[in-house]
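I would like you to sit down with the record closing this message with an eye to the fold:
=====
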Amino acid sequence: MNARPYCDTECGVVILNWNGHAETLACLAAVLAGTNVPASIVICDNGSTDGSLSIINAYIAAHVVDSPVCVTVLDNGGNKGYAAGINPGIRKVLEAGGRYVWILNNDTIPDRRSLEALLQCSRGCPEAGVVGSTVVRYDDGRVETAGGFRYDKWTTKITSLHANARVEDLPGLSPLPMDYIYGCSMFVAADIFRAIGLFNEKFFLFYEELDFCTRAKKRHIRLSWCKESIVVHKGGSSRKRLEETAHGISNYHENISNLIYTRDAFPFLLPFVFVKRLVGRVLRLAAAGRWDLVRSVVQAYGDFLAGRNRAGRGRRSRP
């Protein structure tokens, strides 16, 4: 029998759900089964239409009993995207006085010691204000990325760290330089949010983690990888459901979000990145016969020039 988990009163977990109650409940169960559990778990629902709200609330009422963890479900009232969807949960943890916020994708399964390891890493190195886990692919058990990613501002290429490594080889791996922490498991000291603000709601989907970490690094806040924190990631569930509602919408948001990020972080590079990405993507998609995706790329670039974002709210949220 497992020992009763230790409840860390300084930590809160935030999970975003959109039409994915099965994944969310699996993630919730894994967090509650940890050697350390948080004081609170906030599940933010982005206007699900699959009955997620009632199903998740019923599960909590039936299964989260005699638990030191307070589990709350917030109804966002619509699909507001990632940043505007997750921010209310972060804000709730901050208002409760939480010292750490652990942000998890709903399609992740944290290892039992994952939170314990993150807390040890953060407390052992207070200057590491944003910490990432070892994210492992669900299908083959190999490393997806070690904490986060590198981002080349000239080519806009994103590179995983220690990709495809075996979990058993982790002790011999050294941390690599990174530009941002992977948002599917991001552990943040609450004071960082209070200092630089929450996720930027200009971004409906993609680049919100990079934008957040870029702002953090400008304040000389260190990004760190906690290799002992293992999180299994099924990957892309919400994105696939989004594509089912509007074909090409993920492609649209990846392109417009990159332009917004480049404009804000590296404005001197915007003309170069704009032309390079537009020409490169259109030619590549046209050669593959993907005229449907060519349309979404052109729409994204046109909307960027016109100052429109189909679903972004266009502002940075404060705590």
About this structure: The radius of gyration is 19 Å. Residues 6-240 form a domain with the Spore Coat Polysaccharide Biosynthesis Protein SpsA; Chain A fold (CATH 3.90.550.60). Residues 312-316 have pLDDT under 50 and may be disordered.
